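Re-running Hydroxymethylglutaryl-CoA lyase to confirm reproducibility after the cluster update. Everything else is unchanged from the original entry.
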Amino acid sequence: MNGIAGAVELIEVSPRDGLQNESVPVDTTTKLELIARLLDAGQRRIEVTSFVNPNKVPQMADAEALCERLPHHPDARYAGLVLNQRGYRRARASGRLHEVCLVVCASDSFGQRNQGQTIEQGLAETAAIVRAARADGIASSVTITVAFGCPFEGEIDTARVVGIAQALAEQQPDELVLADTIGVAVPSQVSAVIAAVRERIGNALPMRGHFHNTRNTAIANIVAALQAGVSRFDASVGGVGGCPFAPAATGNVASEDVAYLCQRMGLALSVDLERLNDTARWLGERLGRSLPGMLSRAGGFPPRAAG
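Result of re-run:
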């Protein structure tokens, strides 16, 4: 298919974006076992936690304790979410992160609820953190959240997303992420937004996609993004996830479902589908519910021979 790269990278977000909205407390030991299982399945770039106010996101209250006990793996790259300079200082002090993930919201309404920032304030905060991270030798990615639709403002003007992307390109983080935070995007919209951003900033920044499957469009949106030249995607094993500040923002796209898609399309992706499936089932047992990912229930194809 035209425009699709030969290799795909999955950024595993289940320990952070996947677990942050769970009502059942998940202890640090369980999170560490999840990370170890993901490493065993071939995941190498993992968003492990966020350095945010524990009163607002209690599932992430153990950020420092988790970082202290992260598995030592020669190829692992651990990332943490930070929303302000205070959070960045905490992440840096942990001494275990290779990357910080920053956020600018594409609507002021969502930004005020998510991190107490307008778009303008968010851009000022990311500029300062990107500079600090570069000086500290830590990679940075910036996500434009609600880039395809906002739960409070509705449709998001593509020109606004393009303007934010241009401002971020001038800050020079290591990566730009377009996020369908509430799972409203459709493939034609994904293609149009990526094309508009690329037209403005060219190849100044590598781009990746973050798609929620709230309305069952995530896989189709990933195919559209692949066709538009994007080859990096966030995904969460089992499809767990959601944003505490976005009503009904459930359903990160499942890592195993994306991996199956890419491998069946002949794209290079070094993960073990069976181990991802096992991890999805294991995580569902720990959370006490069936997870929304599909492959862990249906199994891969062709099926493995018995014995």
